[in-house]
Amino acid sequence: MASLQLQLSFGYQSSSCRHLPISTFSYPSIRCANDRQLLFNRIAPVYDNLNDLLSLGQHRIWKRMAVSWTGAKLGDCVLDLCCGSGDLAFLLSEKVGSNGKVSGLDFSKEQLLMASSRQHLLSKACYKNIEWIEGDATELPFPDCYFDAITMGYGLRNVVDKRKAVQEMFRVLKPGSKASVLDFNKSTQPFVASFQEWMIDNAVVPVATAYGLAKEYEYLKGSIREFLTGNELEELALEAGFSTAKHYEISGGLMGNLVATR
Ligand SMILES: C/C(=C\Cc1cc(O)c2ccccc2c1O)CCC[C@H](C)CCC[C@H](C)CCCC(C)C
Ligand SMILES: C[S@@+](CC[C@H](N)C(=O)[O-])C[C@H]1O[C@@H](n2cnc3c(N)ncnc32)[C@H](O)[C@@H]1O
């Protein structure tokens, strides 16, 4: 297999758990950036397959919606933040074409290795326009006003300092460009919230347990409980300086997508 060259940004130093206020503990043993980095390294080998199985393939539709909301077009320079195994980066690559450029950034080496492996196995010519960067969403190794679009799929909820991550997205976006942030929706509707948690408890975690990953997927419930509602996400984006911010609920409110324009 072709050697997997990963462009390293300024080296990632995970924040220490010691300095986190108690309120950030969404799951006792997965409370800080370093714990989460290790979690995503551990689930990397089965991550894509479990997403397909557990969402009945629906996550691919949600990701296509997120990419469409960016308005990315041929020739653009775009960023997939918290890219993981690269699902959104590959979709962006097809949008911007061979003359465009896609940067996929993540702090999980194992997720980036999966992304790079997929890039070499998939045959589309445009995928040569993707670079994979190991880095932190709260300290992006890019200049101001650099990108024409940003996606962040199921990433913001997992970032400890969400405010800093949103501020960084604002900083590296060109004026008039969009960030599209897809994630689970922290619903204000009791039935939706209950159904979401029931599915995690009774479908997601039992399946993950078969792979020895119960703890990693149990983390989902707490991370959603500690996430921001759609309105709070809109406020966070506006506070960071975005001129407009709109949160769209999808799939009956199970998922949500924030679209913020700089
Ligand atoms: C792509 C999806 C989740 C990605 C994802 C995000 C995380 O923060 C994780 C943290 C820890 C472990 C894994 C993940 C993770 O995979 C969404 C789809 C996959 C979900 C795992 C399944 C969610 C099921 C829904 C609650 C209900 C779906 C109902 C219907 C089938 C549409
Ligand atoms: C649930 S995965 C999402 C992957 C991909 N975007 C997708 O939609 O499938 C969350 C990703 O965010 C990454 N992540 C979490 N916190 C991060 C941070 N502070 N900096 C960079 N990546 C981070 C994790 O390593 C993981 O790959």
Looking at the structure, the CATH topology is Rossmann fold
Give the domain tally.
Answer: 1
In what range is the share of β-strand residues?
A: 15-25%
Uncertain stretches: 1-16, 20-26
Rg to the nearest angstrom? Answer: 17 Å
Largest sheet: 8 strands, mixed
Strand order of the largest sheet: 1-4-3-2-5-6-8-7
Number of contiguous helices: 8
What's the CATH H-level homologous superfamily?
A: Vaccinia Virus protein VP39
CATH architecture: 3-Layer(aba) Sandwich
| Mean pLDDT across all amino acids | 91
User: Which CATH class?
Assistant: Alpha Beta
Shape: globular
Helix fraction by DSSP (H/I, runs of at least 4): 40-55%
Bound molecules: the ligand C/C(=C\Cc1cc(O)c2ccccc2c1O)CCC[C@H](C)CCC[C@H](C)CCCC(C)C, S-adenosylmethionine
Q: What class do helices, strands and sheet pairing give?
A: alpha/beta
What is the chain-wise order of helices and strands? Answer: EHHEHEHEEHEHHHEE
What's the N-to-C terminus distance? 41 Å
Question: Would you spell out the secondary-structure blueprint of this structure?
Answer:
Layout (H helix, E strand, L loop, with lengths): L6 E2 L24 H22 L3 H11 L8 E5 L5 H10 L4 E6 L2 H13 L8 E5 L12 E7 L8 H11 E12 L5 H20 L4 H12 L4 H11 L3 E7 L4 E7 L1
Parallel strand pairs: 1-4, 2-3, 2-5, 3-4, 5-6
Antiparallel strand pairs: 6-8, 7-8
Q: Could you walk me through the main structural features you see in this protein, from its secondary elements to its overall organization?
A:
This protein has helices at 33-54, 58-68, 87-96, 109-121, 162-172, 190-209, 214-225, 230-240; strands at 7-8, 77-81, 101-106, 130-134, 147-153, 173-184, 244-250, 255-261. With 262 residues, it is α/β, with parallel strands linked by helices. It has one domain (30-184, 228-261): Vaccinia Virus protein VP39 (Rossmann fold). An eight-stranded mixed sheet has the order 1-4-3-2-5-6-8-7, with helices on both faces. Strand 2, helix 3 (87-96) and strand 3 (101-106) form a beta-alpha-beta unit. Helix 6 packs antiparallel against helix 7 (214-225). The longest helix has 22 residues, at 33-54. The termini are far apart. The structure holds the ligand C/C(=C\Cc1cc(O)c2ccccc2c1O)CCC[C@H](C)CCC[C@H](C)CCCC(C)C and S-adenosylmethionine (SAM). It is found in: Plastid, Chloroplast. It comes from Populus trichocarpa (Western balsam poplar). Belongs to the class I-like SAM-binding methyltransferase superfamily. MenG/UbiE family.
